[in-house]
Amino acid sequence: MRLIFLLLICLPLWGWSAPPYWSKTGHRVIGEVAQHHLKRKARKALAELLSGEGLAEVATYADDIKSDSTFRKFSPWHYVNFPADAKYTDVTPSPYGDVVAGIQQCIAILKDPNTSREDEIFYLKMLVHLVGDLHQPMHVGRAEDRGGNDIQLQWFDRGTNLHRVWDANLIDDFGMSYTELASTLPRWSRNKIRQVQQGDVLDWVEEVQEITNRVYDSAEVGEKLYYRYRYVWWDTVEQQLLTGGVRLAAILNDIYG
Fold first, then answer.
1. By CB neighbour count within 10 A (0-12 exposed, 13-18 middle, 19+ buried), where does 22 fall?
2. Strands of 152-155's sheet, edge to edge?
3. 28-256 belongs to which CATH class?
4. From CA 150, how far away is CA 101, in angstroms rounded?
5. Given 31, 96, 105, 243, which residue has the most CB atoms within 10 angstroms?
6. pLDDT digits (tens, 9 = 90+) for 163-187
7. Model-level pTM?
């Protein structure tokens, strides 16, 4: 009875916790989008490296390994926190790394001809995931509220927080599989895709930060969010899924194409 009582006390606390990542669906959508924008040479090289698995299938790898303490040092790679009025290049980077440095390191390792096959596969899977994380606005957040994790809200009368709303609630409650969601995203022209793929990770983090600042203003502590919030922000969700996908494809085409 004592154990059951303790579990009942802890359950509400677990309900308020937030996983620090896009939902599995979100990451897989980004991988699926990228898969469809690979050049033939890159698609063939990646299929060989991943033993036939697609980018969507490996997109959650970096989250799946979090339970293994061997990979604990990679946990800071999933996000970056810096002030709303500062640029990433204006602040002292974390000595433990962040999502920007993680992406840069993955790219450098994948381009190095001396990288072992085992490391190449590992950092390829990490890259697929981290590019997805970069484009979830609350992964470019503020340290004082842990990327929105401390901004407690209600989502359809369920306890949540601003980070979790963007990680999971918006996408998962939409009720589509990753293939269904990927197939319903807007169709961009080739010119639009080329435009979105311009720049590098330093340019992209500043762009995401602009969206993040608007997301921070989108809800107040304790606010109850319903259909209206989804209606207002769903276009942004789709935009970030598409943007993450086509930029991931651009990186991989540059390395393998």
1. buried
2. 158-161, 152-155, 224-225
3. mainly alpha
4. 25
5. 31
6. 999 999 999 999 999 999 999 999 9
7. 0.91
Rounded distance between C-alpha atoms, residue 197 and residue 132, angstroms: 14
The DSSP code for 224 is: E
Domain boundaries, the chain: 28-256
How confident is the model over 7-28, as pLDDT tens digits?
333 333 333 333 445 689 999 9
Query: Which of 172, 175, 167 has its CA nearest to residue 132?
Result: 167
For the CA atoms of 84, 173, 65, 249, the dihedral, rounded to the nearest 10 degrees, stands at: -70
**What per-residue confidence (pLDDT) applies to 23?**
82
- Of residues 21, 24, 29, the one with CA closest to residue 180: 29
What pairing do the DSSP bridges indicate for beta strands 152-155 and 158-161?
antiparallel
